[in-house]
Design brief:
The protein has 545 residues and is mostly helical. It is built from 24 helices and no strands.
């Protein structure tokens, strides 16, 4: 077009690359360059400073005239870029320019929030059984059967282990977007079955289906968020995953408040969970697919469209990074422990192991008893306080991740958790003789939850989505989250017997020691990823292997 070629000639003049004027290098209709007429107004091209040319006969433009007028022309795009566009037959006027940080955030944030609906369901299904268990057990006839009540609780963990194990392969095969849409089905169906369960068998099937969905979402959501987020805001956007989980847990506890007056309200509580699953399926259908996954599959046009929708323009850095992996087969599970990936898989799985071994389940379990000792007899109120304070810690983390970095926040988190465990152990030890033991234990519990939300809660999932290359990311994150669910289940089953054998104070002293081990691991092994592109992180990790 006339405007396009005006910009081309201007960029050539500005860079003084007159050799580009050779006719054999330019492919234009009729081999002629048409300039705009003097009467035409200036046009604005995104990413390019518009120029107005004086009317000249199209076949009388020469190198000398371009040189004389070089000072009039300005452009922010190099001549070589426009040369490539002209030679390929594309129109520079259709090119998009990258957006500023605020504009990118406005585009990326809706997709992150939609994906976080799965994380919200994750938290809701983990929290719903706490207020509802005794009531549903009475209606299902298992009130006196401790084993079956425990199975209702743990069936979600069994499903989550399976779901997280297969989610990576599904995401690598069908894409992050389609897999996130697909897992809405077991979440919705499982919620519906639980809500209308006439017997314990139906309840167990429903809980298993919900577990499959939340297990898959536990690694799909941080994976998708990391791949669509710019490096400057990947921390704060990644923290929305944990924020959605905490919000889901809190809302599940709040939803249980009517149980005090209506013991059958648990049916409605499970039915509520159908809504976020349905919203997840619908809204995920309209958000962009991960550009990284599209490029690995050779869908370059679709990847560029997704990048333009998210960031305003295709990302050249992503193009070069994806070119290295294009056409390669997805990693097998055994390849995760190869020397080239050993460092990454060690960091990812160990962080989730330490997350579970530093006392989060114990603190939540004992929180009600500690509040009772402090004079708070309402168990629901105690649970709401614990969930709300965890939410506050996560909010603080979201603001600090891209400023302080992952390693400092993790260190601060584990130090605070360890100190809190020491306070809880001291309060439990002197509960019979110290009048302030109850309030001190509550203070230690709340401090622990703030510190957990600050780092140990959100960062392992965020880091696991950053440190692996696209080729192994799906399988590697499956391995990391399987570690999470397995040790969550193991600790849940062994915690009470250990408490009965050695006592609560000794258990919390052990958790404090594990926090110290965690600090040492973070300081010596974990790579800082703040402000780095995923490609840069992967290169640095490769250098450490």
């Amino acid at each position: 077009s006339r405007h396009a070629m005006t910009v081309v000639w201007a960029s050539i003049a500005g860079a003084k690359t007159v050799s580009f004027l050779a006719p054999r290098r330019v492919t234009v209709a009729n081999r002629r360059v048409l300039f705009t007429r003097a009467s035409q107004p200036r046009s604005v091209v995104p990413g390019v400073v518009a120029v107005a040319s004086t009317p000249q006969p199209p076949n009388r433009i020469g190198v000398g005239m371009i040189k004389r007028n070089a000072g009039r022309f300005s452009t922010r795009t190099s001549a070589s870029v426009f040369a490539a566009d002209v030679e390929s037959g594309s129109d520079p006027l259709t090119m998009k320019s990258p957006l500023d940080d605020k504009q990118v955030m406005r585009r990326v944030l809706p997709a992150v929030l939609v994906a976080s609906l799965a994380a919200f369901s994750f938290g809701y299904h983990l929290g719903i059984v706490n207020p509802a268990l005794e009531h549903l057990a009475l209606d299902l006839g298992i009130a006196n059967n401790v084993q079956l009540k425990g199975l209702v609780v743990s069936m979600v963990l069994v499903g989550a282990t399976v779901g997280s194990l297969v989610a990576g392969k599904l995401a690598d095969t069908f894409g992050r977007k389609k897999t996130l849409m697909a897992i809405a089905a077991p979440l919705a169906l499982g919620s519906f079955l639980c809500s209308c369960a006439p017997n314990v068998q139906t309840m167990l099937v429903g809980r298993l289906l919900c577990g499959l969905g939340i297990g898959a979402s536990s690694n799909l959501v941080p994976m998708y968020i990391a791949e669509i987020s710019p490096e400057k805001t990947r921390g704060v956007l990644g923290s929305l995953n944990q924020l959605a989980i905490c919000s889901g847990i809190l809302l599940a506890v709040v939803a249980g408040l009517p149980l005090a007056s209506d013991p059958t309200h648990w049916h409605a509580m499970f039915l509520y969970a159908v809504a976020p699953a349905a919203a997840q399926f619908f809204f995920m259908s309209v958000v962009p697919e991960s550009p990284s996954w599209l490029r690995r599959r050779g869908m370059i046009t679709e990847a560029q469209s997704a990048e333009t929708a998210l960031w305003g323009a295709p990302n050249a850095a992503h193009e070069s990074a994806a070119a290295d992996d294009k056409g390669e087969k997805d990693a097998a599970l055994l390849e995760l422990v190869s020397p080239t990936n050993r460092k990454q898989i060690t960091i990812g799985t160990t962080l989730f192991f330490l997350q579970q071994m530093t006392g989060i389940n114990a603190v939540i379990y004992f929180s009600t008893a500690m509040f009772h000792a402090a004079g708070v007899q309402n168990a629901v109120a105690a649970s709401i306080a614990v969930c709300a304070i965890n939410l506050c810690g996560t909010l603080i983390s979201g603001q600090a991740l891209d400023r302080m970095g992952r390693v400092p926040l993790l260190t601060l988190s584990f130090v605070g958790m360890g100190f809190s465990c020491l306070v809880i152990a001291a309060a439990m030890h002197s509960q019979a003789t110290w009048p302030l033991a109850g309030p001190v234990a509550v203070a230690g519990t709340l401090a622990y939850m703030v510190c957990f939300g600050l780092g140990a809660g959100p960062i392992p999932g965020l880091l696991s989505s950053e440190i692996f290359s696209p080729r192994i990311r799906g399988a590697a994150m499956s391995a990391c989250f399987v570690t999470h669910w397995v040790f969550n289940f193991v600790i849940g089953q062994t915690f009470l017997p250990v408490v009965q054998a050695v006592g609560g104070p000794a258990v919390f002293l052990g958790f404090a020691a594990m926090c110290l081990v965690s600090v040492a691991f973070v300081q010596t092994q974990v790579l800082e990823t703040k402000g780095k592109t995923l490609d840069t992180i992967q290169k640095e990790m490769a250098a450490l292997n």
